[in-house]
Amino acid sequence: MRHSFKVMHDELYTVKVRISPGLDEIKRWILSFGPECQVQDPEILRKLVQQDLQKNLAQYSAPPVSKEIVREMRAVDLGHETRYSGF
Questions:
Q1: Is residue 35 reached through a cis peptide bond, with omega within 30 degrees of 0 on the bond before it?
Q2: Are 8 and 18 in contact (CB under 8 A)?
Q3: Domain ranges in the chain?
Q4: End-to-end Cα separation, the chain, in angstroms
Q5: Which of 46, 56, 8 is CA-nearest to residue 26?
Q6: How far apart are the C-alpha atoms of 70 and 80, rounded to whole Å?
Q7: Which pLDDT tens digits describe the chain residue by residue (87 residues)?
Q8: Are 16 and 8 in contact (CB under 8 A)?
Q9: What kind and span of H or E run contains 3?
Q10: Are 27 and 49 in contact (CB under 8 A)?
């Protein structure tokens, strides 16, 4: 990633980043800062970050899925009728 953007310091606590194609890479970098970072522009990147955060919140708002359900889902995905013996 170090070759895909150039950091320019503008003012205190503000960093402008000029990126080459690939918003997914910069989105992961932004998300790594957690609540310490906020996207101002471009709006599409702001929306992508927001969507990922909403998915994460939904994932942790629901109770965890039991290992037995995961085994059953894997069996169905693989077309097997039997359950797995291990996780």
A1: no
A2: yes
A3: 5-77
A4: 35
A5: 46
A6: 14
A7: 455 555 555 555 667 777 776 888 889 989 998 988 889 888 999 999 999 999 999 988 988 878 887 777 777 766 655 544 454
A8: yes
A9: none
A10: yes
